[in-house]
Automatic annotation (TrEMBL), chain A:
Origin superkingdom: Bacteria
Predominant place of localization: membrane
Topology of this chain in the membrane: Multi-pass membrane protein
Keyword Metal-binding annotated: yes
Organism: Roseicyclus persicicus
TM region positions: 84-102, 126-147, 174-192, 228-249, 261-283
CC cofactor: heme
InterPro entries registered for this protein in UniProt: Cyt_b561_bac/Ni-Hgenase (IPR011577), Di-haem_cyt_TM (IPR016174), FDH_cytochrome_b556_subunit (IPR051817), Formate_DH_gsu (IPR006471)
Keyword vocabulary terms for this entry: Cell membrane, Electron transport, Heme, Iron, Membrane, Metal-binding, Signal, Transmembrane, Transmembrane helix, Transport
Lineage: Bacteria, Pseudomonadati, Pseudomonadota, Alphaproteobacteria, Rhodobacterales
Cross-referenced NCBIfam families: formate-DH-gamm
Protein name as catalogued: Formate dehydrogenase subunit gamma
TrEMBL record, chain B:
Name of protein: 4Fe-4S dicluster domain-containing protein
The organism's taxonomic lineage, starting at the top: Bacteria, Pseudomonadati, Pseudomonadota, Alphaproteobacteria, Rhodobacterales
Keyword annotations of the record: 4Fe-4S, Electron transport, Iron, Iron-sulfur, Metal-binding, Transport
Originating species: Roseicyclus persicicus
Gene3D superfamilies according to UniProt: 3.30.70.20
InterPro entries: 4Fe4S_Fe-S-bd, 4Fe4S_Fe_S_CS, 7Fe_ferredoxin, ET_IronSulfur_Cluster-Binding
Residue span, 4Fe-4S ferredoxin-type domain: 4-34, 47-77, 78-107
Length: 330, 198
């Protein structure tokens, strides 16, 4: 009997507890009270936030529901980078044209001597031309990605432009690898010659002799201007390689924000480096007499070498005996 | 002309994923590609909401402004479509999209991106309407048949609405007024620059 009363009390207590608390429990799941709203979520996230939730498909990126900031990158890519890339190329070409009109082709003051000195051996030339040829295709196909739709598309039509761009993308993806190999090669070959030193200060003070006729500041194998090119290529190339590889394997790395960041750095570096390389191509070809031979045959005229790399000529001449170099026929 | 939009009434979505399945089946979308998905916000917490999301067919679409080959176009009904013959699979549209709509089959070199695929608002692509080549590339063209997107048409709770923006906004507004609450027209401000005010 007592046992039954005890049971009754427990049951009553339970009923009373439920009776008291049940309405409150229902209130907690009332959708009007605590329903999540988009506005409130964005407010809580602040600027740059995105709404993310749980997803049942394997693609983790799909959990991001809304990322309004992506529109900011869209404007940056579609307008700002587009403008910068066009001006980097047009600006440099205009500058060089002006330079050519004012200064003309830089001649060898002493004229051709007829005697040749080996400046770049076969390995150095191989590394240079691998880097150069891949860079040109990479730069053109890359530039096409940024400005092609406004420049090339109206000229050749959608079909041809689509085919060209598709091949350009394939070329860009595959030629990136020999570019990176050649980049490592020139670092190994030329790093030692490109450490800045006191001679460079004097070279810079005299403007490299570029602006005035007959001025030839002393320089070793590479003068300050060439060192600038070297470091631009090495650092710029490294930045392009890293960001490029990150974009080449999009599923392995990163988030949308990271891809946007890599793409922006990639495009900006490419624009700057392309402008520098256009200047490099100019001075190595039409801009200066005798300069192309260094990378063409590898042998430069002695008078050219004396004018532009006086200290290097002394170095090379100093140890003529130790190196079996071909004697000119007399 | 109508201005076609999607509106997901998250207070009705029960995360059944029928919209996802309907889309995959209607267009024979390949494995790994999700033109539509359901994301659950505040999962397991009070006030949890699920939102079905696909391409929102934005006004001033960011994908179109970043596309290097200009393969996007907007139809008279304001549906954002693209040309797979021109697309090079660069991925830029996926970086620019606020809704994660662009999808890529992993067929290109280094096993990464092939030509982009996304929600077409069940209205195919640039090929002739309801042609076989259009079906193979973009899936079926229900709009040309006079039907609305299947995901919205078969939504069991009528959470996902498709149709002219003004009409579906009015339906949603009525619902919110009647039941007294609403978590908002998800993505509208980002996609169209304006939301549904009640």
């Amino acid at each position: 009997m007592a046992h039954n009363i005890h049971r009754l009390v427990v049951a009553l207590g339970l009923a009373l507890t439920l009776g008291l608390f049940a309405p409150q429990a229902i209130a907690q799941v009332n959708p009007t009270a605590q329903s999540v709203t988009e506005d409130a979520l964005f407010e809580a996230l602040g600027n740059g936030g995105s709404v993310t939730g749980r997803i049942t498909i394997p693609d983790a990126h799909a959990g991001q529901l809304i990322a309004p900031e992506n529109r900011v990158w869209a404007a940056l890519q579609g307008e700002t980078l587009h403008t910068i890339s066009i001006w980097a190329v047009i600006g440099m070409v205009a500058l060089l044209t002006l330079f050519y009109l004012v200064r003309g082709k830089i001649r060898i003051d002493g004229g051709m001597s007829g005697r040749k000195i080996l400046r770049f051996n076969a390995i150095e030339r191989f590394a240079h031309w691998t880097l150069a040829s891949t860079f040109i295709i990479l730069a053109l196909s890359g530039l096409n990605i940024i400005v092609g739709r406004t420049v090339l598309l109206p000229m050749i039509g959608e079909g041809a432009f689509g085919t060209l761009s598709a091949w350009g993308k394939i070329a860009h993806n595959f030629l990136a690898w020999p570019f990176m190999v050649a980049l490592v090669m020139i670092v190994v070959l030329w790093l030692i010659h490109n450490i800045p030193n006191k001679v460079d200060m004097e070279w810079i003070k005299q403007g490299g002799g570029l602006l005035k006729k007959g001025v030839h500041p002393p320089a070793k194998k590479f003068n300050a201007g060439q060192k600038l090119i070297f470091w631009s290529v090495v650092l710029g190339g490294a930045a392009l390689s890293f960001t490029g590889v990150m974009m080449l394997f999009p599923n392995e790395v990163a988030t949308f924000a990271d891809w946007q960041f890599y793409q922006t750095i990639h495009a900006l570096t490419a624009a700057v480096l392309s402008a520098i390389i256009i200047a490099h191509i100019y001075i190595g070809s039409v801009g200066m007499e005798g300069a192309f031979d260094a990378m063409g045959s590898g042998e430069v005229d002695e008078n050219w070498a004396k004018e532009h790399h006086s200290l290097w000529v002394e170095e090379v001449k100093g140890d003529t005996g130790s190196k079996a170099r071909p004697h000119p026929a007399e | 002309m109508a201005r076609l939009k999607f509106l997901c009434d998250a207070d009705r979505c029960i995360e059944c994923n029928a919209c996802v399945t309907a889309c995959k089946n209607e267009h024979e979308v390949p494995w790994g590609i999700n033109r539509r998905r359901v994301v659950t916000i505040n999962d397991g917490l009070p006030g949890e909401r699920s939102v079905s999301m696909a391409c929102m067919h934005c006004t001033d679409a960011p994908c179109a402004s970043v596309c290097p080959v200009d393969c996007f176009y907007t139809t008279d009904d304001a549906v954002v479509l693209h040309n797979k013959d021109t697309c090079i699979g660069c991925g830029y549209c996926s970086y620019a999209c606020p809704f994660g709509a662009p999808q890529y089959p992993q067929t290109a070199n280094f096993g990464t991106r092939g030509k982009m695929d996304k929600c077409t608002y069940c209205s195919g692509g640039p090929e002739p309407d309801m042609s076989e080549v259009e079906y193979i590339k973009y899936g079926s063209n229900r709009l040309a048949e006079g039907k609305l997107p299947l995901c919205a048409e078969m939504c069991s709770t009528k959470s996902l609405l498709a149709g002219d923006g003004d009409i579906i906004a009015e339906i949603y507004r009525e619902r919110v007024v009647t039941r007294g609450y609403g978590s908002g027209a998800w993505g509208w401000r980002t996609a169209y620059g304006e939301t549904v005010t009640v």
